[in-house]
Write a structure and sequence with these properties.
The complex is a heterodimer of chains A (294) and B (283).
Chain A: H1 4-7, H2 24-53, H3 57-65, H4 68-101, H5 107-115, H6 122-133, H7 140-145, H8 154-165, H9 167-180, H10 183-190, H11 195-224, H12 227-233, H13 243-252, H14 256-288
Chain B: H1 21-49, H2 52-59, H3 62-95, H4 101-107, H5 110-113, H6 116-127, H7 132-137, H8 148-172, H9 176-184, H10 189-218, H11 221-227, H12 237-246, H13 250-282
The chains are: A mainly alpha (294), B mainly alpha (283).
């Protein structure tokens, strides 16, 4: 909305005349209801994670984090994110270049397909790989004959994670690059830059904050994914157990401190993600474009 | 693929001086096909291979129908709750100024960032009969944890940011002059909100509802801890898929997944139509 009339919206809504806002008691009531609702639904779950994690003291907390299975779960989660986030990053850049820089038939349909994983249940995202690679799956026999292990192993976990985090970078970059247009790249090309140089020195610096924003959200989901990974992992302790799966195992063993200790690491990751996200939005809001949300 | 022959004026793509179309589109399509399209068509192929009679028998199994009913029912209620509270949260964040507003605004995204398993065990601990909230609700006769009510609580948590983040930007862009015009014409504040503001927010609210609903139907991680998972009572469809898989009953798992996908897409289609209609009606 580039309309200057709307831009000149006064920043202080208190100065609105009484006719276009609610009376003071109504405002206070609505604000209170909102804060109580958010307090119960958002803040309390966050507080309880840390409260339970430290329920038996700091010593018990660090002892449960030092457990060998927990440490291998942390390593696996980092490994899976380190593979799947770059893959989706390269895809996001490539898809955004094709969709934002060119006009071609079927573009809207392609954009819809990219968003598809968001409307598929995580469990189904895992299931499709089981149907493909499982013992009774389409490729099951062939994989077995060649001694390739995909399910209940790291490749399956990576594939399921790539599936659920597929749209994050692309859907952040496509609207941003569309908004920026082709002018900068065309100028660079007319000055003799190669296509690669135009991408590296012009496009990438233009979209870097939006890109970081997308990567941040992609990473948070990659490290926290539960449903899809749960279906393909086989839950082998120390081998195919990611952090969220380890939380489940410990919780079901009534090891509350252990479960919440691992959960507190994931909650910490979520908080760091939120802080960085908010900083990016405050500092580079215009360069991330109006695509807020997931 | 890069330059389709321009016979009869039909072009696959508009000419451009920017290079790299073939490479980027080719790579994107290949990656999309490998990661998303082939696996998903595998699911469709497998359910088609079941044959109609088998598929129908699996689909109309009582436990399956009940699980689907619970999933879609609880997701619908949770999305409806989120429409009310999500719109309220967006309103308070956009229109009112209070200390800590920025932090509260950032907090709204917590359910996007917090892994679902963490949300699941945290909510269960809170609402268990001995938990902070469970203890308060017990005397009122409200049992949340290990009941369908618990599923709704988890889905409200998961779905809230979808509504807030869809409605909030539209609310920020609302034209103040329209409100002022309504006020000068003698409308009360209540009339302005219900007759002027809500209609222009309707498309965004419907979008938020459908996003929260779609997410709720498929949600697994946060629900399985709090639901209690009693068959016919609090067993959701995604969990039943997992149970069938663990029994190596691939056909049943495939059938449930196919029905879920079909129902979700049908609902999204209907909601899209409603949205187009409401956009036409309310501009």
């Amino acid at each position: 909305m580039a309309d200057p009339e709307i831009k000149s919206y006064e920043p202080h809504h208190e100065s609105r005349s009484a006719a276009v806002t609610e009376s003071r008691p109504v405002r206070i009531t609505l604000t209170t209801v909102t804060l109580v609702f958010l307090g119960i639904f958002l803040l309390l779950p966050l507080i309880i994670v840390f409260k339970e994690a430290f329920a038996k003291g700091v010593g018990a907390y660090f002892q449960s984090l030092g457990d060998a299975d927990t440490r291998s779960a942390i390593r696996l989660t980092l490994l899976v994110a380190a593979i799947s986030v770059p893959l989706n990053l390269v895809f996001g850049l490539s898809a955004a270049w094709a969709i934002a820089k060119f006009e071609f038939k079927g573009k809207a349909f392609l954009t819809t397909l990219i968003d598809l994983p968001f409307s598929v249940s995580p469990v189904i995202s895992g299931l499709v790989y089981v149907l493909l690679f499982g013992a009774q799956g389409l490729l099951g026999e062939w994989l077995k004959a060649h001694g390739i292990q995909i399910l209940f192993a790291v490749p399956g976990i990576v594939l399921a994670t790539v599936f659920v985090t597929f749209p994050f970078v692309a859907r952040e970059l496509i609207p941003l690059m569309q908004e920026q247009g082709n002018g900068d790249e065309e100028a660079a090309l007319s000055l003799g830059a190669s296509g690669w140089q135009a991408f590296w020195y012009v496009t990438l610096p233009n979209v870097k904050w939006g890109l970081l924003y997308g990567v941040l959200l992609c990473n948070a989901r990659a490290m926290g994914e539960f449903g899809a990974v749960s279906v393909v992992s086989g839950h082998i302790r120390g081998l195919t157990n990611t952090m969220p799966l380890h939380v489940e195992i410990l919780y079901n063993e009534y090891n509350a401190v252990g479960a919440f200790a691992v959960a507190s690491l994931l909650a910490g990751l979520a908080l760091v993600t939120l802080v960085l996200k908010t900083l990016l939005e405050m500092r580079y809001g215009a360069e991330i474009a109006a695509t807020r949300g997931h | 693929m890069t330059t389709a022959p321009a016979h009869a004026g039909w072009r696959f793509r508009q000419p451009s001086v920017i290079p790299g179309f073939g490479l980027t589109l080719g790579f994107s399509l290949a990656y999309l096909t490998l990661i998303i399209l082939i696996p998903l068509s595998g699911l469709i192929w497998r359910s088609a291979a079941l044959g109609w009679t088998d598929f129908w028998a699996l689909a109309t199994d009582r436990r399956t129908l009940k699980a689907l009913e619970i999933s879609f029912g609880t997701a619908f209620i949770a999305a409806a709750v989120n429409v009310v509270f999500g719109t309220l949260v967006a309103w308070v964040l956009v229109r009112y100024r209070f200390p800590g507003r920025r932090v509260v605004d950032a907090m709204v995204d917590l359910p996007f960032a917090l892994p679902t398993a963490v949300a699941g065990i945290a909510l269960t601990t809170l609402y268990a009969p001995t938990g902070w909230l469970g203890k308060l609700l017990m005397p009122l006769g409200l049992k949340v944890a290990y009941t369908p009510l618990g599923i709704i609580v988890a889905l409200v948590f998961i779905g809230l940011p979808f509504v807030v983040r869809t409605v909030q930007p539209i609310m920020e862009e609302l034209d103040k002059e329209v409100e002022e015009a309504a006020a000068t014409l003698g409308a009360s504040r209540f009339q302005i909100i219900t007759r002027v503001l809500l209609p222009s927010l309707a498309p965004a609210i419907i979008t938020g509802f459908s996003l929260a609903f779609a997410r709720g139907v498929g949600e697994y991680g946060s629900v399985i801890f709090i639901a209690g998972n009693l068959p016919y009572k609090s067993e959701i469809a995604p969990l039943l898929i997992v149970i069938r898989l663990e029994e190596y009953n691939y056909p049943a798992a495939t059938a449930i997944a196919a029905i879920m996908l079909a129902l979700s897409f049908a609902m999204l289609l209907v909601i899209n139509l409603v949205q187009t209609w409401s956009r036409k009606r309310y501009g």
